């Protein structure tokens, strides 16, 4: 079996799909995107075609190594996101060839279902107490919300108080055992992050996410010393070598590699194993589409340290289209009592609605994240 064709597609709201077709008629799907840079990533996939056409799609480890090492320059969001989508598609083909879900080819599952959480609020969250209650009544046992709007290095305490009021509203609405994840989104700098983390302790959050950016990962230990809340991060790290530095720094309790940014299934499985050796939990980042989500679940199935899975149904970014629009098997993505069953179909477990994918690609999206500014006109982290 040989790879004969590589296709890429823009699909709303902000995603990119990869389709790899073999000379035996089998095809596999992957999700290759870096949100806001979809065109660059899909162009990078096509740059890699010379390494793919004619190759045996079963040799996933070799293909991954060629794509990563043979190009000389390596790592970073664009290259690793392109590799991620290709890698997912190759695993999809392999599972279909052997008529088995991908996790069965990776040693089998160590669980029979995976806990999931739901997003509430938006970039500037409000009414989160009612939104969390609605998710709880829908069966979810945990939610995640953005913590703050813009925050300067040193900012006013009224912004801190506003965060506390929102978290208090969720706790009051949903009770003491409901999971609350608070995403700092890299918007907070160390001086304010220590204050906010300490003040959030009283609400027993499930975790705080990206209290500072990983480019300042030396600060995680200092923030961890300021509070007794698990710290999660990793969506903006792209390889096991990036995570190696994070593990050596310490201070982080949960890693969140993205299956569409950090080298796909092949690489994230290795990152997860590294994390387990450091007694660090795994909660893959996935504000993306169905192929990325199913790829995450394949890895979650095989990783003892996987604790909860992000998913984007209902997230505020999904305007125009959402996850289930692109699948012909929505029944396999049902959430029951805060869990989703592991994929059982051959390959990744996604029956892609190719007709809709082709329709979306005729008018490619050009999604960009907003540019925020502080009151003094300087650029704020979004």
Automatic annotation (TrEMBL):
Tagged with keyword rRNA processing: no
Nucleotidyltransferase in keyword set: no
InterPro entries for this protein: DgoD-like, Enolase-like_C_sf, Enolase-like_N, Enolase_C-like, Galactonate_deHydtase, Mandel_Rmase/mucon_lact_enz_CS, Mandelate_racemase_C, Mandelate_racemase_N_dom
EC number per UniProt: 4.2.1.6
Pfam families: MR_MLE_C, MR_MLE_N
CDD domains: D-galactonate_dehydratase (cd03325)
GO terms assigned for molecular function: galactonate dehydratase activity
Alphabetic keyword roster: Lyase, Magnesium, Metal-binding
Residue span, Mandelate racemase/muconate lactonizing enzyme C-terminal domain: 125-230
Tree of life domain: Bacteria
Matching PANTHER family: D-GALACTONATE DEHYDRATASE, D-GALACTONATE DEHYDRATASE-RELATED
Name of the protein this chain belongs to: Galactonate dehydratase
Protein source organism: Enterocloster hominis (ex Hitch et al. 2024)
